[in-house]
Amino acid sequence: MKLRTKEATRSQLQRAQRLHRREQRSRHGQTLVQGPQAVRELLACASGLARDLYVTEEAIERHGDVAELASAAGVWTHVLAAQDMRDLSADAQGVVAVISTPEAPGLNSLLGEASLVVATLDIADPGNLGTIIRTADAAGADAVAVGKASAELYSPKVMRSAAGSHFHVPCVAGVEASELAARAREAGLQVLTAEGTGEWELPVLIREAAEARILGAAPSGPDLRRRTLWFVGNEARGFAGCDFDVDARVAVPLYGKAESLNVSTALAVCAYASAMAQRAD
């Protein structure tokens, strides 16, 4: 293994540090990927996006597989002193990459053959958005669509929370809910919303999907075996004030005393319900 190494200049480090600011990311079309897991997935799945890799000596020794991937991809690698790394990122465990921001895919290409799509309305918290992307990836979703008022899709905080899932599942940002719902239905997907209340309860849909598979009985409501787009709303407001056509509003029940579920947890329950129903055969 031979890393393609080069000493980082002070101006180069300063440019990388400025990518923590949104206007700098927009201006240069670049962002930061922080932490060994996210960088590992970058180098394994989308190494062409990588511009520079910054690591400490300790991180190279601890994460030898990351160094091997960097070597194989021919990515310029800059070994930093511990203080320089802390100045660049305090919580990256000694591994940071500067990447070109991925180009957004078109909606038609996202929806055309998709079996499961996850969409957000306006998720404000970067941690929640990153967890939703990671959950969608784990559930085998074919795409993630992020609403206009949501946190920035490729911000360092969102990417750190997603732990590399940006490089596994196609993502598009700035989507209008009404347009996405209409285009999804045109592509043959049913559009469901995950809510605290709704005309259908998720356990009923899970049971009916199983009965349809085993007994051949037609579901009385939405069929979780169908190609589906799941929408989740705002953390606090849900879908209040939003008006767009959906096929059904689905309630996730609360069996304990909690006031509500975290939005990413609600999405996980719904996405996995569809993923398991679609794969049951």
From TrEMBL:
GO terms for cellular component: cytoplasm. It holds the Pfam family SpoU_methylase. Gene3D superfamilies: 3.30.1330.30, 3.40.1280.10. GO terms for molecular function: RNA binding; RNA methyltransferase activity. Keywords: Methyltransferase, Transferase. CDD domains: SpoU-like_rRNA-MTase (cd18095). Residues 32-105 form the RNA 2-O ribose methyltransferase substrate binding domain. SUPFAM superfamilies: alpha/beta knot, L30e-like. GO terms for biological process: methylation; RNA processing. It comes from the Bacteria. Residues 1-33 are annotated as: Disordered. Residues 17-28 have a biased composition (Basic residues). Belongs to the class IV-like SAM-binding methyltransferase superfamily. RNA methyltransferase TrmH family. This is RNA 2-O ribose methyltransferase substrate binding domain-containing protein. It comes from Peptidiphaga gingivicola.
